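Hello again,

I reread your note about wanting to compare the complex against the isolated chains. To keep things tidy I'm splitting this into two emails, and this first one only covers the full assembly. Below are the input lines as submitted, including protein chains and any nucleic acid or small-molecule components. They are followed by the predicted structure of everything together. The single-chain runs will come separately.
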Amino acid sequence: MAGAVNRTVDVLVVGAGPAGLAAAARLAAAGPYRIEVLEREQEAGGVPRHCFHGGFGLADFGRPLDGPAYARRLARAAMVAGAAVRTRVSAVGWSGPLTLDVTAPTGLERITARAVVLATGARERPRSARLVPGTRPAGVLTTGELQQSVHLYGVRRERLGRRAVVLGAEPVAQHAVRTLRGAGVEVVAMVTEQSRGPRRFGAVPPPPLLTGARVTELLGRGRLTGVGVSRLDGRSGVIRCDTVVFTGDWIPDHELAREGGVPLDPGTRGPAVDGSFRTGSAGVFAAGNVLRGVESAGAAAGEGRGVADAVLRHLAGAPWPLSGVPVTAAGALRWVAPNRIDEGAAGRAFLLRVREPLSRPLVEVSQDGRILHRSQLLGTAWPHRSVRLGAGWARRVDPAGGPVTVRIGS
Amino acid sequence: MTAGRRRGAVTRAGALPDTSAPGAEYDVVVVGAGVVGCAVARELARRPLRIALVEASGDVGEGTSKANTAILHTGFDAVPGSLEARLVRDGQRLLADYARETGIPVEPLGAVLVAWDEEQLAALPRLAEKARRNGHRTTRVLGAGELRAREPHLGPGALGALEVPGESIICPWTTTLAYATQAVRSGVDLHLDCRVEKADPGAPHRLITPRGVLRARYVVNACGLYADRFDALFGRRDFTVTPRRGQLIVFDTFARSLVRHILLPVPGVLGKGVLVTPTVYGNVLLGPTAEDLDDRTATGSTAEGLAALRAQGGRILPALLDEEVTAVYAGLRSATEYDDYMCAAHPALRYVTAGGIRSTGLTASPAIAAHVVELLADSGLVLGAERPLAPVRMPNLGEAFPRPYRDAELIARDPEFGTIVCHCERVTRGEIRDALASTVPPGSLDGLRRRTRARAGRCQGFFCGATVRAMFEEAGHPWPER
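Full-complex prediction:
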């Protein structure tokens, strides 16, 4: 980039969401390092900025907070610790293995770091990526756009619509329902392909729930007038509505990782990492929801603290593993993370995601036909919630052997 | 702007200018502000004439012109000797020059027509011969090995190809907007949201719209899908438009490295088939389907159409299907019962039709415009002395050319160009602000998208949607309820 200012820092963290801010806070507190966090939005804090509901903060700050308060606390903690948190600054590409090109209102920069932490988060797949056919009317949103519109820009019912359909039944779908209702929009249906919806809906009645159903078409010219719905049993019909919110179905925002040639895991579609959040590119770490789509903000912040410890070891001269044993998902498993086991890696629990709900499934870990672990899960594994699998078996992995396979089945 | 030249008005609501007094009527009213209508208005703006461009929808290029395969054709496969063949050949040259002059993104990638079976392979020399008769002598047949070297990600089974140098990709949105912008700056009045519901041919003609009556000495029909219906208002029944739907899938920019040329199908008995092509925005396009319909508004995609496209795309470029889909859309092209453009002058009526303009219309648009102006002159319109058009320089939407977020000097002058709002497409606050204040401002968020790429990317508004909408509303545009 012509006219760019060249700068160097010790650690460059990309993304000031929970993972990036938690990493920066711990790194800045740990030593005399220059830690810089780049955030492309106007405010730091990531997705919690527009999550106006509780459920944040207990693990990190020991008290219940809503999303915006949690985001502010994380940002303050990082800045108080001494990290430079810069907003409205976009990392737009790489010009070296550890050098990022940056666009900011103050001009172009080329920042070289001793370690780069990718904490770029995740987004919901929009209607187009889900290949839902039909017309292209106004009134089609993701939860992210809905929440920002209502909570950050104060958009009210007259501009949102009158009758909304929410697709999905996971926690994020419930938040979408609350946001719509808070803005004065009636939620006429919640539609999910799963066999059941949310068990609880707080103190208020849940919207009409259509399970085992999917939206087959969007209708309307200019403005949405309805959605075509088809049940798995073959029945179909049209729900009249002027707004539809596509929720969940998260995909890592892996653009920068991919542009930098950082290898991705085919299951998670995020950067493939080992138990220390080290990617396949030396000096580049990744943590938080960029790894595999959505976990809770607290889990992402926990990974931020974890990656900080690993970065500190790297700055102190720990070698970068050249290979490692890949971990692959099999059976009804959509993905498993971390994606690689290296010698001397931290014993972080593995996260597993199933494709469909499974009651009391069997988990089996093997390498080259050798069973390393076998257990039965209690309760049901859901596609939108990770199952944690302790890493005790990882000690028995042969570092010179083939891939480790994690299989789940009923 | 040229000294002494009146700038045209852009209206979206309210009463139309009073054209009732003798001598106050427009010299020419062009009906339909698609790529053809806008090109005609711009061509007429070279003359000292009073011109209006009227459009039923709320923006220029809202119909066929916004949803097509965005290719600047060489015309190698046109019917030799047809009007289309001539206008595409001339238009290709004119539009390439115009693009350079105004900053419309164009990339001359060249095309390969890939043969997937022996029958298609056997058809290649015939296509080369047809291209020669259309004046294109640079085509070449590639063997399977050379084709694979050129396009290493092609699926198995590609037997060979016809290479067509000169086929290019172009930004269709900027093209239409450049014409309209230049026309307005050169004095043309643009009346949007102004559907002509009835016509009362006479001296002058009276065009009746919900916003009032427009009087015009001459009328040009550039109504695209509705060209036959508008003809009927003037008592002409020369052809019938059959909307032919084309559904298209836009893949993420990460697919861009999979394809280097425009991958055209070999036309066969089973239809024209689908193409895979890069776009100037850095995406990859797969499509179109070809479905003859009755409904001129049926721009929806279908599950069957998308499944068929994915099946064909997976055969042409298997790795394409692993990439995320950014957008899905469908456009309607105006097919007629004839195998050529339906451009006709009706001198006694002081009326010219430019109908049946099919998928090549974008390429041919400047030549169609010149042709239509000739037809108007043949019909008795006194054109007057030619004068220079007001200059235009369009914002660059193309990935092959410098974009503001990478321009240090521009950001130093105006930090708004250093603030990225739409992260997927890297659109800055400065670009959105300028588009909202431009000569032909957008009337909707979709219009803003076509002017800046804001919200056009992989997240489709997850990150930037609320911010972009807030900027749009702050600029004084009512939230479109249509």
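For quick reference: Chain B has a mean pLDDT of 95.

B.
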